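hey so u asked for the seq, here:
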Amino acid sequence: MSPHRQTFRPVGRGGPGGGGGLSVTFDNLGEAAELELGASPAGAELGGHVSATEIVPALLDRLGERGLAATFFVEGLNAELYPDLLREIDARGHEVAYHAWRHEQWADLPAAAQAANLARGAAAFERLGLRLTGLRPPGGQLGAGGLGVLREAGLRYCSPAGAGAGEDGGIALLPFRWEHVDASCVLPPLAPARERMRGSPDPVEPAAFVAWLGGEIDRLAGEGGFMSIVLHPFMLGWLGPACLDRLLDRVAAAAGEGLAVARCAEVAERVLAEPERFRGATALDTASWAG
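ran it, structure tokens below
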């Protein structure tokens, strides 16, 4: 089954779809983030991480069975460690976007370091025949470089933490909300997100998370706007196959019910095609997974 392709029809300011726009996204790949956080054993051999060798290949099959196209925000290091997998993600109709070189906390990087990081990643992607068009900053914040670094690098969009699809100087803003991120269910610094989801700072169980997202998809269909679901391959074991299937089935059903389900790059192009409808519509969030 080929991935869904739908045309966005803006409804109201900041709403990129007839009934809303929805992107399914996956952050992190391989051992890049573990290396950055110092969680990888010293001297460990690189290139055999289970998320890249088993989890993502199986995930691609699950997405393909439902005709869903997703955006994978991966660290640039993966272009060197798992080039064939990145090519396969692209060949199967998904988007390969950028998540820093080695999952560096983006807001902690000076503007010059952000520019160098982007240039290194873009060159590595280019060697695989992949064009870098979008960034999701690890930690969710833009930091010192802001959008200027992204403009200089020729990117088309950014997906920081916040709300409301928007446009700023030729860059589409496709924010994610922490309540729509699987890691928010368990990470201590994101207890406020759990309060908003369930009225309690306690950890959220996988079934409750999927039910919450289902309600959010219903709200999106009724109110319009943009929503990005954020999952992590390393957390799919926590989510479990039954809950993952339930969530992907709900997204596939939403596509059949009028929601525009598309990759982030496609949403960005629709926003940039009519910037006056989206200009100034994004409110950035200052919260971070890192606390």
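Residues 132 and 226 are 22 Å apart (CA to CA). The chain has one domain: 21-275.
lmk if thats what u needed
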